[in-house]
């Protein structure tokens, strides 16, 4: 099995209203991405505040996304937790919901060894027939899935890709192996990641300007470096603003300004401060 996941894959936020998931807004966000030409969706990932969702809420999001997309784009379910038992259970529930793949983050807080990481991902992969996308984001989890461990896991038939959020150099190292597809995991270096051999990006900024990210990837694919450089330059201030505070707080402020969803977050996350809010608003105005 090789990955069918490529291009602009958008890590969707989870809209809330009075503490509950706002499925109406969630559906509108999905339709907006499909209309803009995005190539896939990640549900209940980092941007979706997965760490504060219970298992029932995650499954409800998966089922809703599958129902509304109607196979127009792949739906990748964020099933990773900091416990192997709950991650395997979520993978089974995602398969029951009918998603197209699972995104499995490295277990956070526990700080397992490479042997522990391999055990964890093998258990999740063996719990489902779905394609597995590994997710390495040491800035969030305090543990780094090293290339040797990644390549050992790539020998499993349904481990097809990795969302790599360390460096473009790491993306290149893994891509050159030919053993696993690599998805860029940082909006700040989409172009560098694609040049290094990534087949796509799982990103945040596409929630705000989905067509621009699609256009950037198209320019890179046709080797139109001038157009790609122009897109990167235009997107850079927005990317900086969206990560000035912890994601997805700045993103939800941007989407609230655009009247796409409420700014509500799950505690312990809180809305952005006034300086970040102003920067987000300035960058949105500059991008029209």
Q: How is the topology of this model organized?
A:
Elements: E1 7-11, E2 16-17, E3 20-21, H1 23-36, E4 40-43, H2 55-69, E5 75-78, H3 84-97, E6 101-105, H4 114-126, E7 132-136, H5 138-141, H6 147-153, E8 159-164, H7 168-177, E9 181-184, H8 190-195, E10 200-203, H9 210-221, H10 225-242, H11 249-257, H12 274-287
Parallel strand pairs: 1-4, 1-10, 4-5, 5-6, 6-7, 7-8, 8-9, 9-10
Antiparallel strand pairs: 2-3
Helix pairs in contact: 1-2, 2-3, 3-4, 4-6, 9-10, 10-12, 11-12
Give an account of the 3D structure.
This protein has 288 residues and is of the alpha/beta class. The protein has a single domain, classed as TIM Barrel. It has 12 helices and 10 strands. Strands 1-4-5-6-7-8-9-10 form an 8-stranded parallel β-barrel, surrounded by 6 helices. Strands 2-3 form a two-stranded antiparallel ribbon. Helix 4 runs parallel beside helix 6, helix 9 runs antiparallel to helix 10 (225-242) and helix 11 crosses helix 12 (274-287). It is globular. It starts with 6 loop residues before the first strand and ends with a helix.
* Strand arrangement, major sheet: 1-4-5-6-7-8-9-10
Number of strands: 10
Q: How large a portion of the residues is in β-strands, by DSSP E?
A: 5-15%
Could you please say which CATH topology applies here? Answer: TIM Barrel
CATH architectural type = Alpha-Beta Barrel
Measured as a percent range, the helix fraction is: 40-55%
* Terminus-to-terminus distance: 42 Å
Output mean pLDDT: 97
Query: What would the principal axes of the Cα set say about the shape?
Result: globular
CATH superfamily: Aldolase class I
Query: What is the domain tally?
Result: 1
Question: What CATH first level would be assigned?
Answer: Alpha Beta
For the CA atoms, what is the radius of gyration? 18 Å
SS-based class: alpha/beta
Q: Counting H and I runs of at least 4 residues, what is the number of helices?
A: 12
**Largest sheet geometry:** 8 strands, parallel, barrel
Give the helices and strands as they follow along the chain.
EEEHEHEHEHEHHEHEHEHHHH
Q: Give the low-confidence spans.
A: none
